[in-house]
Design a protein that fits this description.
mainly alpha, two-stranded antiparallel ribbon, 2 strands, elongated, 53% helix, 198 residues, 6% strand, 8 helices
């Protein structure tokens, strides 16, 4: 994704993308961000640009097997957080991403079991869908962490939560009732897919 962005920018300024990247010039990176902001007016959050900068640094490393010079890295980061952010009215901080509440979950499951007329190829898929809804609600995970994601590069991998990722444990606190706990290991969370161990 970052290479595509960088190539589009270099096509816009009529420069060779690899040569331009290998120069590792502060001004070139700054101009890239200015171009990106103009061509993507809906990108209004600072963390979007921080993420792109992180990707550009990784792209530089992939091409040169060197890390971006510390001075260049600090200059760009300070510029993004200061002048660039202020000039473009970027929003600092992360957007809240709420998980479903108990009433919403109850409503979704109630509709699913009582009123849903969808015909499933295999009826066990109806049970699996309810289980996925419960896993998503209880873990607060993205859907792609539980079942195969539709993202490019992941689609078609059939990666999903496996039986080995789920453990049922019985806790017996002294003098209290036993408590059944479901322990779920999320291996496929965003940014963790390429790691061999969870």
């Amino acid at each position: 994704m970052n290479m595509e962005r960088w190539e589009r920018y270099c096509e816009h300024i009529r420069k060779d993308p690899i040569k331009q990247l290998k120069k590792c010039q502060t001004e070139a990176f700054m101009l890239f961000f200015v171009w990106y902001r103009k061509s993507h007016p809906r990108a209004k959050r600072l963390n979007t640009y921080e993420s792109i900068w992180k990707g550009l640094r990784q792209l530089f490393y992939d091409q040169t097997r060197k890390v971006v010079n510390d001075d260049v890295g600090k200059l760009i980061s300070n510029w993004l957080h200061g002048k660039f952010c202020d000039d473009n009215g970027l929003i600092r901080g992360m957007r809240q991403k709420h998980v479903i509440g108990h009433q919403g979950l109850y409503g979704a499951l109630y509709y699913h079991w009582k009123f849903d007329t969808e015909i499933f190829p295999l009826e066990r898929e109806r049970v699996q869908l309810a289980a996925v809804l419960l896993f998503l609600a209880y873990t607060g995970s993205r859907p792609g962490a539980i079942v195969e994601s539709g993202c490019a590069g992941i689609r078609g991998t059939n990666a999903a939560l496996l039986y080995r990722d789920v453990k049922l444990r019985l806790l017996q606190p002294p003098g209290e009732e036993s408590l059944l706990i479901l322990e779920v290991t999320i291996r496929l969370d965003k940014g963790k897919r390429k790691r061999s161990q969870p």
